[in-house]
Amino acid sequence: MTVSSLVPVSAAPPVVVVSLSKDSYATQQLLKTDSLVAHLLSSENRWLAELGARGRTDRFADKDLWQTLPTGEPLYKGVHAWLRMVVVDRTEVGSAVVCVGEVTHIKVDDCPPDQSPLVYHSRNWHRLSDASLLTFVNQP
Q1: Fewer CB within 10 Å, N or C, the chain?
Q2: Domains delineated in the chain
Q3: What would the pLDDT profile of 56-73 be if each residue is shown by its tens digit?
C-alpha cells in the first residue's frame, strides 16, 4: 500500500511510525504481520506508488517486479532506499491505525542524479529539486 505518513520518532533505537487507514483492505492484511518493509520512493518509482494506492489490487501479481527478503517480506526491485521494521505497537486513532516499528535494516543505494524524492502533496505527485530548497531565515 502507499502511505503518506511515515515519521521517524527515535534515532536510538531507530523507530518510525506509520499511519494507515483503518478502512483499507491492505491495512487489514498488514495487521496480521509482525514486520513491514517501507520503500522510500524516488520520482522514477511513481508507478509503484500508484500501484500501492489502488484499492484491492494484487500488488504482487507480477512476480518479476519483486523479490522476497530472507525474513519473508516482499521487496520491489529498483527501489533505491528501503527499511525493514518489526512492529512493536499498534493503536487505533480515529479513522487510522498507527503502527510503531523498530527499524531492523536500512538499505540506501546511490540514486541516479536525474532522480529525486517522490512527494505527494495536495492530491498531486511532485519531485523534489534544488528549486524546492528553503534556506534558514534568522528571525529577530
Answers
A1: C
A2: 6-132 (2.30.110.10)
A3: 677 677 778 889 999 998
